[in-house]
Structure formats: C-alpha cells, structure tokens
Amino acid sequence: MDRDNKLEHRCLLLENREVVPGWHLLELQAPDLVHASPGQFVQLRVGRLTDPLLRRPVSIHYAEPEKGRIRLLFRVAGRGTALVSGFKAGDNVDLLGPLGRGFPCLDEEEPAIFVAGGIGLAPLFFAAAQRSRVSLPFEFFLGGKSGSLLPPEGYFQAHGIKPRLVTDDGSRGGSGPVTALLEEYLETNKAPLRIHACGPGPMLAGVVELARSAGAAVHVSLESRMACGVGACLGCVYPFRSGDQVEYRRVCREGPVFNGEEVLFES
Amino acid sequence: MKAEPQLALELAGIKMNSPLMAASGCYGYGFEYAGWIDLRDWGAIVLQGTTLEPRQGNPPPRLAETPSGMLNAVGLQNPGIDYFLREVRPRLGELGCPVIANIAGESVEQYRELAAILDGVGEICAVEINISCPNVRCGGISFGRDPAVVERLVSAVRRVYRGPVIVKLSLEAGDLAAVGRAAESAGADVLSLINTLKGMVIDTACRRPFLGNVTGGLSGPAIRPVAVRAVWEMAGAVAIPLIGMGGITTLDDALQFILAGATAVAIGTANFLNPHVARDIKTGLRRYLDREGLHHYSELIGAAGSALHRR
Ligand SMILES: Cc1cc2nc3c(=O)[nH]c(=O)nc-3n(C[C@H](O)[C@H](O)[C@H](O)COP(=O)(O)OP(=O)(O)OC[C@H]3O[C@@H](n4cnc5c(N)ncnc54)[C@H](O)[C@@H]3O)c2cc1C
Ligand SMILES: Cc1cc2nc3c(=O)[nH]c(=O)nc-3n(C[C@H](O)[C@H](O)[C@H](O)COP(=O)(O)O)c2cc1C
Ligand code: FES
After folding, report:
1. Which of A24, A64, B107, B144 is deepest in the core (most CB within 10 A)?
2. Domain spanning B9-57+75-199+219-310: which CATH class is it, in words?
3. What was the pLDDT predicted at B143?
C-alpha cells in the first residue's frame, strides 16, 4: 500500500555548493518537502553502507514551493557531513521528513528576533525569509568565529534579510558574542516580542536568560544525536523542567524547537 | 499459475502474516511510525519496555555511533503500566497488527505483578520478558544470568499470564544454553535473542565516557555474527521456537537467522536507516522462495545444519 504521507524521499541533488569554507549548500528537487515549516528537519542518509550507520539530522534551510525545491545548509563537522560534502549534482539523496515541530507564531504581528550562532542560522534563515516575504517585522542577529566563515551579505539580501553581525575576531561587524547584540536591542525595545534562537548550548542559555529578564517569549532549536528521528527510540532526549522534576523530552518529536524557559541547560 | 509462497505462521498461537517483527525499544508504541509506514508489513510489533512505575531513563547523551553499530543507553524510559493501560492500550487496535508487550522489573515480584496486570488485556497477544537489558542497574540483565533465577522468574510469570510468554535473553548469560533450558522448563513458549551487548565509547577530547550512563547496549550489523551464533546454539539446546535478532538489515541477514534455527526474526536498529525495512525484506523473502521453488518459508528454519538434532 502506498501512503499519501511518505516518510522517505529520494531527492535529486541539483547543486552542492561550498558557500564558505566548510559550509555546503545542497539544492534538492523535493516536491514532497516544500511545505515543511521553518525549524523542521530531515534525517539524511550519508552513505549506502552501514558505516557510518545513522542518518544525520539537518534543518530545512529554505523551501521554494513553486519550484518544488528545498535547500539544506550544513557545516562539515565530522565523518557523516564530510561524506555529504562530496555528494554531486545528479546524485539521489535519501531523506526522511519533514520531521519535528518548527518555530511557532511566525505569522504574528509582534516583532520577531532571530538570534543565530554560526551554522545555527540554517533554520532561522528559513523563518526570517518567511516573515520577510509577507513584510512582517524582524531582526536577525548573527554571530560567528570570523567574517570569512560567514556567508556574504548577498546571501541574505536576496531574501530580504539584513543580519547584524558580530564575530569573535571582530573581522566583520562588531566583536563579541551575539548575545551582546540581543542585550543591546532589549535595552531599548520592550516586550511584546518573540525571540527565536539556534546555536551552541551556552549561547542558547544566554539568550533564554536575557529573554527572561526582558519578559520576552523565547523559543530555541536544540541539537542532539539522533537515531530514528521520529520519536520511537528515545535516544535524542534533552532535560526539561517539569514542576520540580527533571523530565526528558524527545528533541526529534516534541522539538527540535522548544519553549526556552523549560529547557535545563547544562550549567 | 504458481501458488504464492506463504509467509504466514502461528508462533505459540500468535497469528502472524510474516515472520518479521519490530524489536522492542526501537519502535516506540508503534504510533510513531503509524502515519507513515504500513504496519501490516510486520508480523507483530513488540512495544517498548514497560515497568510498574514510570521511569525517567538515563541522562543524555544516550546514543553513540560505532562501526556498523550504535550504543544506546535509554534506560527503559517509559510512563509506567498505569499510563500504559489508560492511554496506550485503547489505541493499540489502530495499529492493525499483533502487538506484544515487553516488560521489565527490578524483582521477580515486579515481573509477576506486571504479567498479572497484562493477563487478559485483549490488545496484547503475548508478553516478552526482558531479562537482558544492559542499561538498568537493579534489573534487567542480572536476572538473565543465573538459570535458577530465570526459572523462578519465568515460573512466576507463567502462573499469572495465560497467553504466550516470550523470554528475551542476552549473551551476557555465562551459559546461554543452560539459561534457555531453564526458561523452557519453567514454561516459556518462545525465546527471543539477542538483546544488545554492553559496550562503551570514550570521548577522547574530553577524556571521559561519552554516554551519560557511561555504558550502553550495542546493536546493529556489528553484533550480527554473534547473534547468529547464539541462535544456532540455542536451537540445539531447546525445543521451543526462537525469535532471532541482532543487526538484521537485509534479506540475507534475516535468512541467516532463519537458517540457524529462528522461527521468526526481529528488526530494531535497521528501522533507523530504512524505515521500510519490513516491506523490503518481506518482498525479498517472497521472491527468494519463488526462485528457490519453496512453498513456505518454514522449510528454511534450521536448515543450515543439524543444530536441531544435536539435542
Ligand atoms: C534537529 C537538528 C537540526 C540540525 N540542523 C543542522 C543544519 O541545518 N546544519 C548543520 O550543519 N548541522 C545541523 N545539525 C547538526 C548535525 O546533525 C551534526 O553536525 C551532524 O550530525 C554531525 O555528523 P558528522 O558525522 O559530520 O559528525 P560526527 O563525526 O558524528 O561528530 C562530529 C562532532 O559533532 C558533534 N555532533 C555529532 N552529531 C551531533 C548532533 N546531532 N548534534 C550536535 N552535535 C553533534 C560530535 O559530538 C562531534 O563533536 C542539526 C542537528 C539537529 C539535531
Ligand atoms: C534504542 C534501543 C532501545 C531498546 N530498548 C529495548 C527494550 O526496552 N527492551 C528490550 O527487550 N530490548 C530493547 N532493545 C534491544 C532490541 O530490541 C534488540 O534486541 C537489539 O537492538 C538487537 O537488534 P538490532 O540489532 O536489530 O537492533 C533496544 C534497542 C535499541 C537500539
Ligand atoms: S531520535 Fe529516536 S526518539 Fe528522537
């Protein structure tokens, strides 16, 4: 029996381009995935053999329903992503998805603040582009190691995104952590506003702290290692506050986007 | 016209349309895949482990990838038997295939109590007793080592559960055959093997164990030859049917277990790579039987050798 809801998709790779050193943009023919919402992800099979064994979770970076295409943006972090960086146009890419729950309330009037650390911009780019298309207000704060390791302005402008940048070495934008941009913004702009963040754990913890003191709503996209990607193996959990208890929730199913206030970040 | 080769079987009374089963802990309660996968591709689904009380499970990270395998240290996270009966049980009929509960306890008494609670629960067609989990401290595997304890535990369950009783074994048992025979003589209807093998990965950058639980259970293709050997040996030791598992990803893998003496096979980790693995192996098995001129897959059970007759 063929179900309407397909989980596995064999997608034609149209282009694999190295945007900046170590970051690859995959453009895929994937008509079944174009209605994914920002923050959802796919489980990408990195090889045909059993080593590496597991699929790798990658956020949907952009979708073009008119063309039936999606984009994935990933950083080469290890063996799996190194294999994917070698994929060639014309290859078939095996994806499961769209998976998980994305960023909420992206169509609301109140200003949205996107805070991205490095490759954390992948899902936030999609969310911001969606707001830009319908002219809803937003800010995009982006932090990275060095200017040359972040995509050029044009990469964002084509989608109506004008990111404010900071880099660790000050080579582009100011220097310092991306949370400093958020802090500065929150000093002059008061709630109601909605913060969406994706990046390394300590950065997310900082964002949630700032949001809490400003009384702003905050959602974070979390990362964890995954096996099934659909909620069946309980392998991808993250700790959450539930009353005075710790509760483990599945990043792949209840997330990857969560209310930041409930996440128990490592201190 | 050639008759279609048959895959259907009755495993200790459980009517299955094929010998392929979803392995416990790898398929949630079935619902996680239900919207996407035709669950009728499974002969039966074994649900994730259930305990008397809710269990929070182990701290993350719970997964580590290894060469052609993975370690998991979930630690039996589950909402407990009361929640199971209240929230999960009423929906199990939607799955459209036989459902088997998997139970784990911290004492013989807890196993007995769980089995007694599940006795007569119509949505469940059998219980699988997990006495081989490497990820829980005061339960699981410690019960599976000693034939005397296994005998006591299985008898206790047997007395209160009227449906088929499946006993899930690990290789950590010193004398696998003795443990299998103990389960058999205590009234087990089926043995399933193997559970994951205890392993460990060290994060060299941080110079400490990678998993939150320090150790985890190894599954996937890496354990397959060991699992095939275990099934082969057990087939020579007991007369009751076996469910073989451990690293099955392809038709050839499944055939190895059947030829070694398994009546049915379970698939866990391979679902994560190929969510259509049941459909693919089922189709492959039909074609194989056709090609080989066989009428029923059961002609292959134990056909690799004389293991069955060594008893
Ligand atoms: C929901 C979700 C969405 C993601 N979206 C993207 C994306 O859009 N672009 C992108 O570049 N990356 C994304 N990631 C992270 C990506 O999945 C990992 O970088 C990738 O799995 C690493 O695989 P590897 O084999 O290359 O590295 P490995 O050799 O497995 O590991 C290399 C390093 O990365 C760490 N690591 C491995 N897997 C993960 C993981 N899943 N999460 C966090 N750290 C990990 C390891 O601890 C190690 O330090 C996402 C992760 C999740 C959970
Ligand atoms: C993530 C995960 C969770 C598991 N949880 C259970 C469990 O709760 N109870 C159980 O009896 N076996 C459990 N197992 C073991 C599997 O059912 C199976 O015996 C083992 O993984 C070998 O098969 P495979 O290589 O096909 O995965 C689990 C395995 C994995 C990978
Ligand atoms: S990856 Fe299996 S439950 Fe999330």
Report:
1. B144
2. alpha beta
3. 73
Q: Is A53 in the pocket of ligand 1 (CB under 6 A)?
A: no
Binding-site residues, ligand 2, Cβ < 6 A: A 233, 235; B 23-26, 48-49, 72, 74, 76, 102, 130, 133, 168, 195-196, 219-220, 223, 245-248, 267-270
Q: Which class for B256: exposed (0-12), middle (13-18), buried (19 or more C-beta within 10 A)?
A: buried
Q: Tens digit of pLDDT for each residue in A127-165?
A: 999 999 999 999 999 999 999 999 999 999 999 999 999
Measured between alpha carbons, how far apart are the two ends of chain B, in Å? Answer: 41
Question: H helices within B8-130, ranges in order?
Answer: 31-34, 80-83, 108-118
Compute the distance between CA of residue B23 and CA of residue B166 in angstroms, rounded to an integer. Answer: 13
Pick the CATH number of A112-262 from 3.30.70.100, 3.40.50.80, 3.40.50.10710, 1.20.140.10: 3.40.50.80
Which residue out of B97, B133, B138, B206 is catalytically annotated?
B133
What's the mean pLDDT in B20-30? 98
% of residues, chain B, pLDDT over 90: 87
Min distance A248 CA to chain B CA atoms (Å): 7
Helices B224-235 & B176-185, crossing angle to 10 degrees?
50
Half-sphere exposure of residue A83: CA atoms within 13 angstroms, side-chain side: 15
Sign of CA dihedral B136, B137, B141, B144: negative
A184 close to A115: Cβ distance less than 8 angstroms: no
Read off the pLDDT of each residue in B42-46 and give the average, rounded to a whole number: 97
The beta-carbon neighbor of B36 closest among A5, A226, A236 is A5
Q: Which ligand is nearest to the CA of A22?
A: 1
Quick one: which ligand is closest to A201's CA? 1
Specify the CATH number for A2-99; select among 2.60.40.2250, 2.40.30.10, 2.30.170.40, 3.30.200.20: 2.40.30.10
Q: What's the pLDDT at B174?
A: 78
Distance (Å, whole) CA B29 – CA A219: 29
pLDDT digits (tens, 9 = 90+) for A9-53: 999 999 999 999 999 999 999 999 999 999 999 999 999 999 999
Q: Which two tokens stand for residue B1?
A: 């016209």
Q: How far apart are CA A120 and CA A230, in angstroms?
A: 21
**Contact assessment for residue B46 and residue B102, using Cβ atoms and an 8 Å cutoff:** yes
Q: What is the model's pLDDT at position A82? A: 98
**Measured between alpha carbons, how far is B260 from B245 in angstroms, rounded to an integer?**
11
Report the C-alpha gap between A153 and A155 in whole angstroms.
5
**pLDDT the model gives residue A121:** 97
Q: What backbone torsions phi and psi does residue B306 show, to the nearest 5 degrees?
A: -95, 15
